[in-house]
Sequence to fold (243 residues):
Amino acid sequence: MFDFDVLYKPARLNQAADALSRRPRTTSSNPLITHSDFVSVAKLSILPTELQHTTVDCELNAITCETSECLTFSSYSKDQFREFQLKDPEFFSPRKFWNEGRKPVAGDDNLPNDPETKLLLREWDKLLEKEELLYRSCDGNDQLLLPKVLRSEVLSACHDDTGHQGHKRTIALVKTRCYWPKFAKDVTEYCDQCDRCTRAKIPPKIREPLRHMMASRPNELLAIDFTLIERDACGKENALIVV
Fold:
């Protein structure tokens, strides 16, 4: 059916195929696409005539962009953030010490009794102020001190809006943006109480407990095993044990 002969060729002699596969690709003398090439390709478009536009030559000198004020809260202004921090009772004492320019020390009569505020004051050396907003510097990130009124929104944005990730990833997302005392605990509780995550969890399989095999008559249950014993005078050493 096919007019050819199959011949065996040793690998050390079969160099033609290997040489062809290693042949370098020739580089074009003009690898860049010119404007005329682009126009010729654009004319092949199958778009309707009313949607086709002629190309226009233009030069771009600079690109300007504005960064959002907050990655998590693009709908709030900095003035609103300042108001939220000033009205939050947890931040009242830290803000007072900060405005007075003195570090809180043990035995100070103005130290608060609130445990969350005490935890925040322990981070005093990491606090900084930018544009009248208090931040906490940690691992190269400036974390905004987040008031209570915004924490539920942050938890929803970092957990619900990012695919309902687990505790560790949600904590990492919050940590790069903001800070408040015991935020890791709040994130864990939020993830545990998430209705969608709870319904998506697969319930554990209940295994059947192990029971003894009961026999009702002789030889109903047999256990067979092969073992190797010391060789006897006949040269036999394999034994079949049946119980």
User: Anything to note?
Assistant: Residues 57 and 127 are 52 Å apart (CA to CA). The first strand starts at residue 127 and ends at 130. The longest helix spans residues 78-87.
